[in-house]
Amino acid sequence: MQLPVKLIENELREFETRFKEAVKSQTPLLDRIMRYIVKRKGKQLRPMFVLLSARLCGEINETAYRAASLVELLHTATLVHDDVVDDSHERRGFFSAYALWKNKASVLIGDYLLAKGLLLSLDNKDHQVLHILSDAVRKMSEGELLQMEKSRTLNLDEAIYFEIIQNKTASLLASACAAGAWSTSKNDEISEKMRLFGEKTGMAFQIKDDLFDYTSDNVGKPTGNDIKEKKLSLPLIYTLKKADKETRRKMIYILKNQNKNKAKVKWVIEQVVEAGGIRYAIDRMNEYKREALEVLHQFPPSPARQGLEDLVVYVTDRKF
After folding, report:
1. Nearest Cα residue to 198 out of 165, 172, 223, 228
2. Residue 187 backbone dihedrals phi, psi, to 5 degrees
3. CATH number of the domain bearing residue 10
4. % helix, strand, coil for the chain, step of 5
5. Per residue in 113-172, pLDDT tens?
6. Residue 1 lies in a domain
7. In whole angstroms, what is the distance from residue 198 CA to residue 302 CA?
């Protein structure tokens, strides 16, 4: 499945120019780090969601471009901070900023990006857009902390898992769609509808990410990585709930004490596969996908609606 880049090719090019301008700094070291980060940015999924949501509700305008830049600034800031929290030396196949410039600089880089995002909105009086996206940052922090707390005790049921991914992952995509819709509609009801669409899509996105931990495909992420980090993903939660007492006890012991042992991790993955944990996660992912498309189809057919639909399909069908 291809990304619907052609539909907003010119707008994405314009966004790129504006984003590079937004992260510039007069401090040489900071500017060098920013250039490194920008050069290794990902597929720009979130700015695409912003711009297509804006196009769905009207003509892409200055507010929409700033909303896309704000989303990308916030997302990049969280990634830089995540690498510090996770002690991660790699990001998208390259050295992370944390690996190259260590703790102090990485924390300050993340802070700088957050401040630039805030100023971009405040200087242009995009108060509603800033409000929508600030709420996402709050939720992302809450989700991360809740996951850390539950990982320590391995006490996680489905309800808590969905609360974590709703805050940690889905909230930013939800806010991206809501901000995009608001930028061209100035309508709270439409913005809320697109927020819900983005949230459902974000939930599907995270479940798909969880599934990569149980595949042998080349996904740019080591198989069993979440297990090694004691992160309870949906396939694992389902398996622990279904397992007999002895299997469950053994799995939990491995997760707590032997999560770096490749053979033990492999055994856990085999239990997940045999218990139907992967099939269950795929079904839940497709459920969120269907719900997202139901919300989207409340809007009249248009190229922008089709582009957003293509993005939803891409999110759930991607190979990495």
Report:
1. 172
2. -125, 120
3. 1.10.600.10
4. 80, 0, 20
5. 999 999 999 999 999 999 999 999 999 999 988 888 887 777 778 999 999 999 999 999
6. no
7. 18
